[in-house]
Design goal:
The chain has two domains: about 5-130 and about 210-225, 3-Layer(aba) Sandwich (Rossmann fold); about 140-205, ACT domain (Alpha-Beta Plaits, 2-Layer Sandwich), CATH 3.30.70. Helices cover about 30% and strands about 25% of the residues. It contains six helices and 13 strands. It has helices spanning about 5-20, 40-50, 65-70, 110-115, 150-160, 190-200; strands spanning about 30, 55-60, 85-90, 95, 100, 120-125, 140-145, 165, 180, 205, 210, 215-220, 225-230. The strands form three sheets. A six-stranded mixed beta sheet has the order 2-1-3-6-12-13, with helices on both faces. β1, α2 and β2 (about 55-60) form a beta-alpha-beta unit. α1 (about 5-20) crosses α2. Bound molecules: ribulose-5-phosphate (5RP). Ribulose-5-phosphate binds near residues 34, 90 and 104.
Length: about 240
């Protein structure tokens, strides 16, 4: 993670965020992710709306994304009027060779998962620091119900084996829930099973493991941008 300067990382985020916009066509309804990489996607979509007359609409995955999208002139949809999105563009905190993800560093994992599961395909925008062999170095964000969160934390600790920290005593997601960050270390060899095991705990609202969800990673490295497609990619 530490092999890039902050300037290099910012340049890679911009490159990935902008390159992903090539998937966006007139008339599409898109899911709009959250984070410092997707910020560049939103800015580029705003530019295309203003300068090229691109006609799209979208559903945001966080209040912050909604504000920036509105500022950029992207028309927002309500779930009452939208059953399906053409695609979603979102960031990730880690991804592995099968394109399983850790997400939720920005606390938006629940909305991000609802949006991803409602989309015809998921494009992940990432810089090279996000690519890992085995998931788990990045602490796994888990959104929990406020009721009895201390007990939910103990049950997560029993599975995790490492430390589980509540993210700030006053931190709440846009949905009003705490986040617990579970420090697995790079040990999540079977993310599909881990996602299921953690979701089975009452009190867990959503887990930041996104398994079999992403189709394409737009990966920016110092040498340029690379597209990594899953063999079963829908896009
Ligand atoms: C927010 C997320 C973000 O997509 C993830 O944290 C990556 O963010 P960034 O692009 O700022 O590194 O999952 O909940």
């Amino acid at each position: 993670m530490g092999q890039f300067t902050s300037e290099e990382k910012e340049a890679m985020k911009a490159e990935a965020g902008i390159a992903a916009c090539a998937f966006v066509e007139n008339g599409m309804r898109i899911g709009i992710g959250t984070g410092s990489t997707v910020k560049y996607t939103i800015l580029e979509l705003g530019r295309r709306i203003r300068e090229e007359g691109l006609e799209i609409s979208g559903i945001p995955t966080s209040d912050a994304t909604e504000s920036l999208s509105i500022e950029q002139g992207i028309p927002m949809l309500e779930w009452s009027d939208c059953e399906h999105l053409d695609l979603v563009i979102d960031g990730a905190d880690e991804f592995d060779s099968e394109l399983h993800l850790i997400k939720g560093g920005g606390g938006a994992l629940l909305r991000e998962k609802i949006v991803a599961e409602s989309s015809g395909g998921m494009i992940v925008v990432a810089d090279a620091s996000k690519r890992v062999e085995v998931l788990g170095e990045f602490p796994l964000p888990i959104e929990v119900n406020p009721y009895g969160w201390e007990q939910t934390k103990r049950r997560i600790e029993a599975i995790c084996g490492g430390v589980v920290n509540r993210r700030g005593p006053d931190y709440l997601t846009d949905n009003g829930n705490p986040i617990l960050d579970a420090h697995f270390g790079p040990t999540i060899e079977d993310p599909v099973k881990m996602e299921a095991d953690l979701r089975a705990i009452s009190g867990v609202v959503e887990v930041g493991l996104f398994t079999d969800t992403a189709d394409v990673v737009v990966l920016a490295a110092p040498g340029g941008c690379e597209l990594i497609r899953k063999p079963t990619a829908r896009l």
